[in-house]
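Sharing a chain and its predicted structure for anyone who wants a worked example. Both blocks are below, sequence first, tokens second.
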Amino acid sequence: MSSGYTVFDGSATVARRRTTTEQRILEAAAAALVGGTRFSDLTVETVLELAGVSRSSFYKFFADKAALVQRLAEPSIGEAAQASTDWWHGTPASSWRGLAATVARMLTIGRANSDLWQAYFDAAAADPDVDEALRGAMESHAEMVAQRISALQEEELATSELQPIHLARFMIRTTLTSLVDHLQHGDRDADEAITRTLGRSLWFGVFGH
């Protein structure tokens, strides 16, 4: 039987406090990176000062700065991967233009988050845990792509001369490397050229006609 009294749940307040603190840390790190700080120059002390939180608070949420950068970049990296997934689960055999449009979408996402992406790949190069997570995500995506290529081969829509998993890995690595390099060194005026080139060449590699 209810007593008629509302029992205060302190855990909700603690959860909100944790969320707020974590968000402040994320926003502080993002501000530093967008402001031009490279991953190698980003320090936990800088983040603490910008966020106005204690060191102990930082380590409640993040093992180190690499884990922090990973958290910052993963949403946009995931969005780009989802664009690829959507294309593969549509009608990929219809035209190379669809793949070019998908690559363009990925480039748009990357350009909007270029500082975070740069920091993420720098973190992966420096931190084994982040590198392992990135490689795992890429391999998982490659397995999905390989399954779609295999299905398209069975329908006689894709070339049967190439091993699906190797082709999938090649496509993913080529796309990622090309886009990251273009974001770092390319000109915006060349965006359409790079996406058309990638889209068309990779599409013909799969469908061969």
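Comments welcome. The two ends are 73 Å apart (CA to CA).
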